[in-house]
Amino acid sequence: MADKHTLWRCGVFSLDEKKLEEELASFRREWKEEIRRTVTDSGSSRNSPSVESPSPSSREGSPSPLLLETKNSSNTTSLTKEEKATQLFSQGVSAERRGNVYEALHFYRRAVQLVPDIESRMIDFTNNLMQDEEDSDNETDYTYNVVKENQDTCYLTDLTKKFNSLSVTGICQPQYETRMTHISAIPLELIVYIFKWVVSSELDMKSLEQLARVCKGFSACARDPEIWKLACKRLWGVNCGSAAHWNGCWRLMYIKRPHVLFVGVYISKTSYVKQGERSLDCYYRPFHVVEYYRYMRFFSDGTVVLHTSADEPTIAIQRLKVKLAGSNSSVSVGHYRLNGDKVTIVVNKKMATESNKGRRTRGPPPLISEQIFHMELQIKSTKRNKHHNQLTWLYYSISTKYRSSGQTVCSQLDLNDQFPPLYFSAVKSISNSATAPLQ
């Protein structure tokens, strides 16, 4: 594209347009010279002629951003160059925080034009400012934490006083007037003894927790340290120890320390595929899916009842309510012992050698005279509110003693496929009756 001088030589522009261009160029030179004087000399800027109201002809050719710069420069002539750059950079930071990116770039560009290294200077200043703000925030947080701890301490102190102030008459109050004697008239010692019957010798702690939901007085009685201490002594026996590890709280020790659960049954379901016999034409062979259950019920006196059956839990659990095996050969009675988070089970199963009186023995005597089952399982918790509800297999062996030779053979079983974990299931019918109180 040809420049303007070439077009002028060719006579494209008229004389009036040439004159207008010359006036505009002279105005721009005067305007730039006046701005340069204003920036260099702060005292002469007040006496200098105003640049904000140019002639109509100059308004047409002068851009509005330059006029804004002239106004801002006239207001900040009393500041030094570094102070003006700092002020512009701060305005850019504020605009960037508000989300006005283009406005922030405009302020940053003007600040760098005045002081090229203004960014590095501002970084040091910003770091010092942020450190001061962090120190003030830390002081505020410390004050807030101290106040909150004092409030919590006062709340716990008041709560302790309320529980300690519970007496025989204040354990609970009747909601309506009645002619019969209300339970609040019963002495506290007798109420605690009733609670021991609720727990019973089978350690039904779930019923105790449900009883604690009746009222605040019952909740205080259900947390009587004597009840929880007796429960721990009955559960762990001579290996109980003290509750010093749990801040002297027997209830916390019973809840947190691994142990088996009593008022219910541990159940696992096992399934595998078994091949059937071929058909007569040898073109078809069926496959059967075999499913069966393993049941374990623990008693607080160290007895355990094991049962393996294909029956559903609703039917098989009825056979586990007593500690006797009876005539069912799939029900075995053994003993267990707790060792940390592990439970060891030993079942001694002897084969019958003599028949009942008055009956003749049919067939040869059994080849096996005795079998001893050794099992070791680990106690785990699957969820936060479900403690000790899972038993995983660690070891399982069978010692078989033969009648004819007297030889004992020990075989260890593979626990990979057909020994899934057992999960605890509470049984309401077990907790319906109690034979003896907790003692």
UniProtKB/TrEMBL annotation:
Highest taxon, organism lineage: Eukaryota
Per-repeat ranges for TPR: 85-118
Region (Disordered) residue spans: 36-83
CDD domains: F-box_FBXO9
The keyword tRNA-binding is assigned to this record: no
Compositional bias (Low complexity): 42-79
A Pfam family the protein falls into: F-box-like
Sorted UniProt keywords: TPR repeat, Ubl conjugation pathway
Residue stretches making up the F-box domain: 183-232
InterPro entries in the record: F-box-like_dom_sf, F-box_dom, Hrt3/FBXO9_C, TPR_rpt
Residue ranges of every copy of the F-box protein Hrt3/FBXO9 C-terminal domain listed in the record: 244-350
Protein name: F-box only protein 9
Organism encoding this protein: Porites lobata
